[in-house]
Each structure stands twice: as C-alpha cells, then as structure tokens.
Amino acid sequence: MRGVTWCIAFLALGATTLGQSTEDLVRTESVESSSTSTGSSQEETEEPRAYMRTPAVGGVAVKSGEDALLTCVVLGAKGRPVLWKRAKDLQLLTAGGVRVTRDDRVDVLHDDTEEPLPGPGIAKGGDVWALVIKSVKASDAGLYMCELNTEPPVRSFHRLTVISRGLTPPESQNVTDSYSANVPTLSSLALSHNYTDCCVAANVTKSCLGFCSIQTILEGTGQDPETCQPDFPAIVKCMADGRNHVPCCVQERVPDICQDVCRGEFTPVTDNIKTHYSCASYMEKTLACIVEGIELLPSPPEEVEVEPLNEKQLNVTWSPPIENTDSVIEYIVNVTTLRSFDAHLIDPSESSIKDNDTMKSVQSLTYRVPANKTFYVLNDLLPFTMYEITVTSYNIHGSSLPSYAIRSLTLTPGKMKSTEVAAAPKLPDVRSCCVDQGVNHYGCVDKLCDPTKTFEIALQVTDLMICAPWAGVTFTCLANGMDHTPCCRSRGLPESCLPLCSGNITTLDFNHFKCLRYMNSYTNCLLRGYGVLPGAPSRLYLTNIDVDYAVVHWSPPAALADTVQYYNLHYKTLQAGEEYRALERIHSPYIMEDLEPNTDYEIYLEAVNEHGVGDASSRLIFRTQSQVLEEEEEAANSYNVTACCERVQLAGVCMPLCSYDAKMSDLRMLAPLCAQDFHKLLRCGAGGRNHEQCCARRGVPANCRGVCAGAYSGGVNTCVPYIGNIVQCFEEGTGLLPGPPRELHAVVSSNKLYLEWTAPQDGANATSYVVHWQKIDNNTQPYSYNTMQSTYNKMNVSVAGAVLDQLEVNSTYHVFVVAINNYGESLPSSMLLFNFTDMEEKEVSGIPSPPHSLSVSSHSATWLTLTWQPPQFSQPDEKISYTLFFKSPTQVGSTNVTNITTTVPGHTLEKLSPNTQYVIWVKAHAAAGDSQPSETLLAWTDPAYPAYVEPPSVNPVNLVVEGSSMTILCIAMGTPTPTISLYISGRLVRQEVTRHMVTVIHNVTRDMDQISCYADNGYGTPMQASRKINISHVPTIQASGITMAAAGDAVILECRVEALPKPTIAFWRDPNGRTPVIDGPNYTIQLWADPEEQTKYTMRLIIKKITEADEGDYFCHAENAFGKTLRPVSVRLRPTTPHHNVTECCTQMNVSSSCIDACSFHLDMDNIMDRPECMNDFDKLMKCAADGSDHRSCCASWGVPRNCLELCRGGSVSRTCALQHARRALACFRDSGARLPGPPRNLKAHVAPTPNSVLLSWEAPMKNPQTVYLYRVFWRAYGAKVPEKLDTSETSVVLTGLQDDVRYECVVKAANDVGTSSLSAPIMFTTQGQEVAGAAAAPVRGGGAASAVGVAVAAVLVAAILLAATFYYRYRKNLRLKAQGGVAFENPSYLREPNPDTIVNGSVPNGTANGNGITNGLANGVSNSAAWRQETLNNPSTTTPAAREVDPTLYEELKLGQDGAGFKRLKP
Questions:
Q1: Residue 1419 — φ and ψ, nearest 5°?
Q2: Which residues contact 864 (CB under 8 A, 6 or more apart)?
C-alpha cells in the first residue's frame, strides 16, 4: 500500500509540472496572437481578445468506471466554435455542441443561455464548455486539448488520470476492514464487457448467448441457467478473457473454492455432493473483478512453441498478447518437471549419465523475460525428461492467465537435434524417355511419364484410355529397366496388373481399368525401386508405459536416413474391427497421450522424405497400466471413510452417503431415513480432524463450522447450502491434517500422572501433540471443545507420551490430547477422568466424554421425545451406544429407575402418566468404557385435555371450483394428541394422529359440499365440527325439447339450469350470430330460483302470441364466472290445415242444430258453456274433438283425475268432470291431436287354417298412418271382465288357443311416439270367423271349384304371413316389448301402461294367445263392458283393485323426454 501511495504522489507531481508548462505555453500563444492582431489594423476599434482561463493544477483524477468531467472556460469566443481534441493523436472529439467521434461515451456540455453565472470574469453561461467521458477506461488517461477556432488558435490543456480500483488506497486506515473502501462495484463500465463473439467461436448454444454479456446477466437473460450449464465452461472462459483475476478476488475475500470463475474456469454442478457449494454471495464481487481486469490486465501470450535443442536445452518462443500489449512489462516462463525417466531405460550407448539420483528431482522453475523479447532458451535441463512450459504476461496491474501448456522432451544424451535435412536422390528422367520414344501427347507425358504424378490417373479413366496407344512406351520408361513385380505383388496388385510393374506391356484394354485403384501402391513401388525413399525405421521400442501414455523411441532407417523429414506413427487397439489411426510429422522420442488404461495397442512407423513414404517398421504390441491398481495403491495410504461407517454400524440404507463422492440425489432421498444416524456420518466424514480453518477459508459461516469439526447440532439443516464446501474440506483434510491420537491411557503414581497414547494410524502424520488438562470443580464449564482453549492448561510434546506433576491431592482432573502438524490439528481423543490421590498407584483408560445437551424436543400427556448430542471426545470410528435413565421423583428407591438402551442420540418415552414430572439422564458406552452421566433433566408431561376440533378450513375460501383441487385443514386440540378423521359427504377420507391435518382433494365434484372433522384422544367425548361449502361450477342446462303450438297461442319455453354462482341468462335465436331475444311486448324472460336447492334455476321464455316469425330454434344461454353453456329448444306451429273436420263429425253424430255452430276445426268451449242446451250433446262434441286419439296421458300430466280421464279420448263422463276438465282436455286435443294416430279401420276376423285359431286383419288409421309403430289387440270371451292383449307392428295377427264353442269380442288401437289412438269399432268372432251383428258367425265360404281355390289361396296366404312373421321377429328382434328391454321407441304409449304381459316378438309365447280358463257365458251382440275403456292390463287371473295416480319413474322421465316428464301412470 505504501508503494501505491508513492505512485499516486509521483503522478500528482508530474501533473503539476505539466500544468505549469502548459500555462506558460498558453500565455505565449496569447501574446503572439495579441501582437499579430494589433499590428494588422491600428485604426479600427480594438476588440476584446479571446483567451481561456488556466485549468486547475493537477488535472482531474477519477476511478475507472466513473464519469470524467473536464471543464474549459473560454472568454470572448463571440460565436466561434470550441473544439475538444485528444492530445496524443490529435483526434477531434467534439466541435461546438456536436460530438464528432464515434465513441458514444464522449459528450459535451454547454449552456447557450444569456444568463450570467456567478464568479469573477465569467460574463455568461456560454463561456463554459465541459467534455464528458462516461465510464472511463485506463486507456482514456492522458492530455486533452480545448481549442478555440481562431488565428492563431487559443488552446488550453487538461490532464485526465484514471486510477484502478484495485490500486485505490483505503480511505481510512483505522477501520477494521481495510478493503471496505475498495469493493469493486458494477458501474456502467461493466455493461460494456460483451464477449459474445468469443462464445460464438466456442460453439455456445444460441439460446444461451444471453450469458455472454455482463449487461444481460444483470438485467436477466430470460433463460434457465440449468439448461445452459453445459455451456458455462466456455462462457466463463470467454468472460475471463485469459486474464488472471484471482489477486483481485483474493483482495475482495472471495473464498478459494469460489475462485474458479476468477481463473476462467467453471465447476459444473453435478450429482456429486462436492459440487454443491454456495458462492452466490460473492458473485457481484467476482464480476466486478473480472470487468476491471478486462480493462487493465494483459491477455496471454500467443503462439507459444517449444523446440528441443539438445539433451539440456529447450527453445521457447511466443508472440505478444493481443490485449493491452503496450502495458506488458515482462513475461514469466514457468517450467515444470512432469516426470524423470530412469537411466536404465535409455540406450547405454547414447547416455553419458551414470548417477541416477540427479534425475529424481521434480520441481517447478520460473524465468523472467523482458517485454521486448519473445523467446527464451531453457538451459541446464535434465536429459530425456518431460517438461511442461507455460508463458504468462505481466504489467503493473497484474498478469494474464498462463498460456496453453506445452509438453516437450529433452533429447537423449549425445544426440544433437539435426537442423538440416540432406537432399534425396534424384528421380530418373522418365519424361525424356517418353519424348524420345515418340510420346507426343502433353497430358500423357505429364501424368504417365512423371512417377510423382502417376497416382493422379487413378481418378480419371479417360486419361488411361487416351494414353493407351503409348502404353508400352510410358510404362517401360516408368520401370526404368527394373522389374518392380515383387513389390507390386506384396502390395496386393492383381496378376493382370503386374505387367505394369515390369514394363512389359504393349496394349491397354478395359481389363486394366481395375488397376486404377492400385495406382498409389504402384507409384510407391516405383519410387522404392528407384532407391529414393528412406528405409524402415529401426530399433522401435517403448519406455515409461503408464496408464494413459507411453514414450515411443526409434532409430533412423538404414537407407537415406539423412533425407528423412519426419515420421508417421500408426496405432490401433487390438480389438476386432479397429482401424489404424495416424499421428503425422513426429520425431523420436514421442509421447503417445490419451491412451486407454489396461489396453493392448499395436504400433508401427514410416519415414517420410521429399519423395514420399518409405517402408513400414516392424509392428510393436504393448499394454498400458491399470488405473485400478494405482487407485488402490493410493487408497491404501489414505483415510477410509467407508470402513469407519462400517465400524460404527451405520445403517445399511445410509451407506451411499458415507463417501466424499456421495450423490446429492441420494442425500435428498435418504435424509429422512438417516436423520438419526447423521452424527455418525459427520464423525466419520471429519475423521477425527478439525477442519474449521479450511471451512473458514472456503466461506462456511461461523454457525456451521461446528459441522466441520464433526459436531452434530440440530441446526445442521441451515448448513445444507454449504455442504459442498464442507465435504471438500473433509476430503482435503484427510491428506493434510493429522488423525486423532488413540489408546489414551495413564498411570497415576505418587504425585505424577504418566500419559501415553498411540500415534494416528491413517492420513498425514502428526509432528507434535498438545496435552490439555483441567481441574474439575463445581464452577467448571460443561465439556465443550469450543470453550476448552481458554480454560485448559496445555503442554506441547513431540512424542506420544507426557508426564503431569504438581497435581492437587483429592482433586478430579480431566485430560485429553490432540495431534498437530503444519496444516492444522486433530479433534480431541478420548478423555481421561480421574480422582488424584497419593494413596496407591492405579491405571486409567480413556473413555468417551458424557453425552450433552439433553433436552425435550416434543412432548404430550403420555410421551416425551428426548434428544442429546453425542460425546465431543471420542474416536471417529468408535461404536457408541447409550443408556437412557428415567424415573418419577414420587417413586422412592433406586429400583424404580427405568433404563432403555439405544444406538441413536434420541428416544421417545411412551406410556407415561399425564401431568407428571420425570428425572432423566443418559450415559454413553464404548469399547474403552462407559462415560460419566450427562446433565440431569427434569421434564413434565402435559395435562390431559379432551379433544376439541375446530370447523374445517377450506382453501380457496368460498371459491372451490368443480374439477379443481381444494385444501382442507382440520385443527384439533387436546392432550394427548387426538386422532383426526376427515369425512366428506359422510365418507371417511383420511385419518391421522396429529393436531393439524392438511388434506388436498383433487378433482372436486359438486356433491363434496359437506365436510366434517372428527377428533378423539380417548379422554372425554369425541367432537365433530362440520362445514357446508359451495362448489362453484359451470352452468348445466336441461332443455324442454320441441313445443308444438297453434298460431296465436301463448307458448312457454323452459330450460332447467344448475350453476354456482348465479348465472346470467339469455335466449338467442342464432348461436353463431348471437341474435338475442329482447324482453319486450311479445316476449317475457324469467329466471326462477328453486326454493329448495339454491343452485337450480328455471329460465323461461314466454311468447305471448306466437306467429310464423317466432317459429324455429331458440338457444338457452347461461353464463357465470367459470364458463357458459348453450342448449337448444324449439317451437313449431301446427299445420294450418286440420286433419279432420269437426263440423262434419258433429253432423254425423246428429248434434242438434242449435249447437252445430260450436263445431269448428277446433271445438269452441266458450260457445258451449254459454248455451246450456248444448250440454246434452257434450259427449258427441268431445268425441268429435278427440278425433279418434287417446289424450289421457296429456290430461294426466296436467292433473286431470283418473275418474275423468275418459273425457280425454272422447268418452262419456260425469257432468262435474265435463265442467271442471273440459278446457284442459281441449287444450290437449290442440297440443297433440295433430300428431297422435287415429283408430285402426275395418277390423275383421277370418277363419285360420289351423284349429282353435282365428286371423284378425285391419287397415291403418286415416290420421297419421305413417307414424304408427305399434298396434295393440285386445280380445276376451264375451262377458269376461279382463281382456287379453298382444302387440304387433303389422296390420294382421293370428290368435291361437281359442275354443271353438266360445264367442269373442275384439278391439284394436294404434300407437306412435306421441301417444295412442282411441279404440277401433269392436267386432264379435268365433273360430269360424267374424259374426255379423244379430247373426251367427260363419266362415268365408264359396261354391264349387272357386270356393276350393279361394280356400286354398287363403290357406297359402295365411301360411306365408305366419312364416314371414316368424322369420322377421325371430331374426330381426327389433320390436321387443318392454319386459324384454328391447323396445326402442322414443315415447310409445304402452310404456305408460304398467304390468304388461310377456309377449315375444309381437306374438304370444309359442305362437298362441291363450284363451283357456274363461268360463264366462256368452251373449249375443257386442259387450258394452267398461273394461274396454278402462283398458286394465292386469293378468287374466288377477283381480283389479282400485287404481291410484303415481309419478313416473326416473327411467320413464329420461325415456319420454321433457314433454313426458309430467305424465301419470295408472297403477293398481
């Protein structure tokens, strides 16, 4: 620092001198200017002369990276421009207020206002011109010139001094931290360090180039650093730019473990635990050092080369560095001896060295070279020795990083490096031979008559064809009178090509084309035959075969050795399919590097001169050394951490962590399992050595340095970020620090204590020992290695023994020993604890120190969890167990003490009494003996309290969305800890013994709205707390489907909506165009909330008077914060043309003339009610209005009672039913009458070809025949109460199982997907056919042949119908009844009729409709029994109890759709 102060003083002195000389210069120029202007014009008025105020003495001095401001005061400028120039190169920087230079750091400040500035001699603000240089560099230092553009010019000179931040002296020497004033900061200078070009050249991934600029690093690259980690070595190397920033980093107290970036190196973070160390807090200081070093330090020397001159000299040459070349003051050449080879491996004839001891030294030497030299000859080196040479640039600020290292071998003794190569013999003049023999084609002469170019013809078949006429001449001249056939045959040329080698060839044809591929071998044989190629290298051998390299030696060839320019070495491994690899342009001896360990190699050499490659040497096979053997040899002499873990019986699952190369992934995975064994890992990792100094050097905070001494503490988790720093210190310390002394014991005799111990067994040896002892009394502090240094007496000894005397009688002493050497000290050994008396002689052995820090980590009413720290004084590999003692003070006597043995420093005492005090202590046990008891602990168990549970907390609060996740927190109080059970909607989800249970429920459904927390701890009454939550969800809509209406009717379109929160609704006409339905005169939009279920709503659109424009599709739209839903509903107008004429029906039914006007297309109920005389014709009017359809389903859905339902199909009812429900029946007639079918027509019975059967046939109804899916046939014996039935889709059916002597009556009704028709007109029949009213039934008969043919045709027809029906129903099976579950009609009316009989495929089982067992008598005519109207469909053998109205099942609601959801069913 003193030198820095002298340097700054010298700069100030120089600036003062320069300032004085500059002032004189300005005055002289001003005088000259004044005299010139005066002499030019004596008569004109004398104008004020321009001049500049003298700048301040000493100039301006700023730190690098700051902004510099040079002020120039110009008086009398009168609008003439002021120029700023750099004095050293006269570069113009600014002109007036304009920046001229391209350097955007330069700017000029000038005030153009006319307001005067305070100060003498300054007339206005425009007199001041300030040059601003932002973020100054060291290269900006020097003189700057302010010049006024006059004749002669007026100038002033200003000096700028740039001071390096690293050289800035402390502002105050009295402060504790002398570096606090010099901490580099990242100024705007840092932002200019952009090394993207270097990163691109180093193939850094394009997406990671953001890390190639300090500015983007500080502003944020936007790229995940982990993805760019493979590129960080190249990025950091480019960032350092070859400069050595380590001195600055050391000055800024960056730990050595974090200085790799300062050297341009990067340690990648891998799974190895040693790579996980923390340097984040030093990154800003590191970047600041790098940015400053880029501006000040030189780059490394370029093009470093090493050339061996002889056995003792190497010539080192280099080029100057690229950056800051002018600042270099010297170069440092570093020479390191890598390996000394044994003399017996060198050829004795070549060696003059007899003393092998001189070759054993391994050292590193440095040589200083002035800046004006770029070479250096290393002298006095060892012969045949490998050296590594680097060159470093230095200037006054620091140095570059060393250049790339070059390894070189000095030559063997007695061999000087040959500096000249003799010329090879000349080739024969083949060209003249060809010309003389008449070859006149230039191309053939050039290629086939030049032995050095014949190999080129191998690529051109056309050349060989062109030159074929002169083949005999050219190949004869190439042979030069010699037969080269033996060489060609050995090189693998085929027989057909051998005439080329002997020159005995007259013509060339296509058979010789295959010789083209052998032209290289052919050329080599020619040159060999000419005697111009060197021979094979001789005496090939290897020395110093190591794991990954070997040294190859050889002697020059016997032939033309002086013409050899270099050698080519070919090598390969002896694996199958391996090809030779070549090392070209080498000389003997040569170091083959980067070999694989324990691998067989084959090598050979070839000599090369100016004509080509000579013969190959003999092959040599060798095997490299084994890497495993070296590692085992090194491991045998080092500390074995794994063996230590095995001796302390570390859990097997934790053994992967017992290594200095443990994986971080294993640590994360095994940490919960190995928490109780962590103290064993620390003890074995530390190895009985004190690594605190190393940890302090590597940035481990003070609160974690106890871990560096193997002392486990509960706060070890806070030290995990520094685990890499600590493990590196552990590994480094095993080779440097001494291990602990072992087998400490003592003999107490008289008034002396004789101590002995065994030296450390593994790792570095101890050079001396320190014995610590202390007298123990009531004021003695607890055993702690951190406090023993100040309280213990000490004795330094150099042998493994000591004698302590002058001990006090009847006193207790504590003794332990540590080993020390130059690098540090060990941890304490086992301690000696003895009571000194003068009675008798006794021997004392070392024992572990007592466990300490006994405490309660957690507690409850029935248990206590205890933890303690292992003994501080014990061997690292000592197996230690513990005995935990406890009792209650209320229990008298030593027999009431309970003890528990454990191998881990912690235990949970269970089954204790609530609200009870316990006395607890612990002892440690080792092979050497038992420790003293630890401190005594008094601990209370908690009082017992019944369980109390709070209502569950749900997150997110009031915003649980269906399909998302929710977090439920159950909090329960009580002692002991209660068991918490979580129930969701009555289902047990989770159960755990805890006070706080957090449960995450994924994929929440809307039925999870009831949450309960239940707690019980066995004391008192269990408690439950519940909470009902709202599950928010997207609206769901159920639409009503299609609604039919007549023009002018009022129509209600409904949609059922379920949503939370409450939705906003709308009706749209076009879902794409979003055409809304506006609430207005003809439209009313309503949203009704369900009073029982808060999440359900009904949205209605009321069209008050529907027209054709209103017909079509509407879309129910519901939306809330979580989504929206759209569902269609439709309204259709009934056809304007009615299906029947009610007036015509009324006329046929003989409605009285006074009421005939009430008949119209639709019956006018108001007209009927106003005229009582029409009530007599009411049944007729309703029958016509029903139009032959059965509307009972519709009426039932609107609440018409059962006893009045006959009104809905045109039947007779009481006057009360007519008055109360006629309007509803007529409304049903209007709603569905146009879609319901009419009754079947022309029902007839025919004689069947089989006995006891009859064929029934009918015609389709007049109304909606195309929509009929099904016909239902009812028949019964005349007078019976309950009919039988069957369903069919055809217009005919055969009834079987009838009795010949019984009369039957029959009706048929039609059904479609809307409903059913009314019954057809009834008929009477027997097995002989249909009966005519009032006459006996007779079969269809005829006379003669016609009758016979008719019967035959009828029989065939009936048989065909039966066969077709059987085939159709059996294989298609598409019209099954509901009992079989196969009917798929959308809304068949028979689904509303309960308890159907079992009918298979539209016919009765076995093809019969059984009528047996009917004993009712027959009567003439058709029965008028009300059973037809009731259509009770119970089984024939059952009675019919009174029917009741019931709601439809869920299945029927789903099957029938929204329109059918309100239908009633008739059930007995």
A1: -135, 155
A2: 856, 858, 908, 909, 912, 918, 920, 939, 941
DSSP characters over 432-480: HHHHHTT---HHHHHHHS-TTTGGGGGG-HHHHHHTGGGHHHHHHHHHT
Mean pLDDT, rounded, for 951-977: 90
**pLDDT tens, position by position, 1201-1243:** 888 888 888 888 887 887 778 878 887 877 777 778 889 999 9
* Greatest distance between any 2 Cα atoms in the chain: 170
Using an 8 Å Cβ cutoff, are 947 and 1015 in contact? yes
Mean pLDDT value across residues 1346-1364? 46
Hey, which residues does 333 pair with through a beta bridge? 367, 391
Q: What is the Cα–Cα distance from 736 to 1216, expressed in whole angstroms? A: 117
Tokens 């006429």 sit at which residue?
A: 469
What pLDDT score does 1037 carry?
93
Query: What is d(CA 1138, CA 1144) in angstroms, rounded to the nearest whole number?
Result: 12
CA distance 1173 to 1167: 11
Beta bridge partners of residue 1088, listed in sequence order? 1098
Least confident of 90-94, 159-163, 868-872: 159-163
- With a cut of 60, say whether residue 1441 has pLDDT above it: no
Cis peptide before 1061 (omega within 30 of 0): yes
DSSP string, 519-543: HHHHHHHHHHHHT-S----EEEEEE
Question: Can you read off the two tokens belonging to residue 837?
Answer: 């008396």
Which is it for the CA torsion 135, 141, 146, 149, positive or negative?
negative
Q: What is the number of H-type helices and E-type strands within the chain?
A: 30, 72
Q: Which residue has the higher pLDDT, 1312 or 1349?
A: 1312
**Rounded to an integer, what is the distance from CA 605 to the centroid of its chain?**
53
Mean of all residue pLDDT scores within the chain: 76
| Among candidate residues 1076, 1035, 1040, 1034, the one with its CA nearest the CA of residue 1055 | 1040
Alpha-carbon distance of 301 to 851, in angstroms, equals: 61
Cβ pair 744, 801 in contact under 8 A? no
Please tell me the predicted confidence (pLDDT) of residue 1000: 94
Residue 376, pLDDT above cutoff 90: yes
Asked if 860 contacts 977 with a C-beta cutoff of 8 angstroms, the reply is: yes
pLDDT of 321:
92
Query: E-assigned strands of 719-789?
Result: 742-749, 752-758, 768-776
Characterise 490 by phi-psi region: left (phi > 0), alpha (psi -120 to 50), beta (else).
Answer: alpha
**pLDDT, mean of residues 1160-1189:** 72
Distance CA(363)–CA(36), nearest Å, equals 74
pLDDT of 690 over the 80 cut = yes
Distance of CA 950 to the CA centre of its chain: 39
Whether 35 has a pLDDT exceeding 90, the answer reads no
Estimate to the nearest angstrom the gap between the alpha carbon of 1075 and the chain centroid. Answer: 46
CA atoms within 13 A of residue 198's CA, in its CB half-sphere: 19
Report whether 369 contacts 331 (CB < 8 A).
yes
Say if residues 680 and 711 touch (Cβ distance below 8 Å): no
Question: And the tokens for 937?
Answer: 């602990």
**Residues 6 or more apart in contact with residue 964 via CB below 8 angstroms:** 1003, 1004
781 Cα distance to chain centroid = 53
pLDDT at position 1417 over 60: no
Distance CA 1210, CA 1191 (A): 9
901-926 pLDDT per residue, tens: 998 888 999 888 888 899 999 999 98
129 backbone dihedrals φ, ψ, rounded to 5°:
-125, 115
- Of 26-40, 574-588, 944-958, the range with the highest mean pLDDT is 944-958
Nearest to 274 by CA among 803, 685, 669, 584: 685
Both tokens of 589, joined, read 């001896």
